[in-house]
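step: validate -> pass
step: tokenize input -> pass
step: predict -> running
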Amino acid sequence: MMFPIARVNGRQLFNQLSCDMDRLFNQAMSPVARAMPVDIHEEGERFVLEAEVPGVTREELEITTENGTLTIAVNRKETDNGSNGSEYHVRERRFGNVSRTFRFPETANLDAVEASLNNGVLTLHVPKKEEAKPRQIPVR
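step: predict -> pass
step: emit ->
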């Protein structure tokens, strides 16, 4: 009786381990990312942060800055807690507090942040400090 010999490829094992670790990391981080996905980019003389906050009102948003960090906090109030006799079959919408904190470079002027909320997207414009902006030096 012959038994088949299973050959193990080290590269396949490493790739599988890498995929498993990525999946584990993504599952651990996904509640935060799903709660408030964010894009941050640099646009000329300012940084632009765009956060998805669907269904959130201006009153439910709190934006604070402290020691080079900017925090966006959302307190979503539950509109229906089942007290009217309704019974949920699926409940995926989140309620409660969610916050994200971002560290900006020293060139960012966090004292002059401008915020706007439009169609469920919170947009923050963070200008750069004057001393961080490029300037031309005249030659005499």
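step: describe -> The domain at 35-78+95-132 is CATH 2.60.40.790 (Immunoglobulin-like).
step: cleanup -> pass
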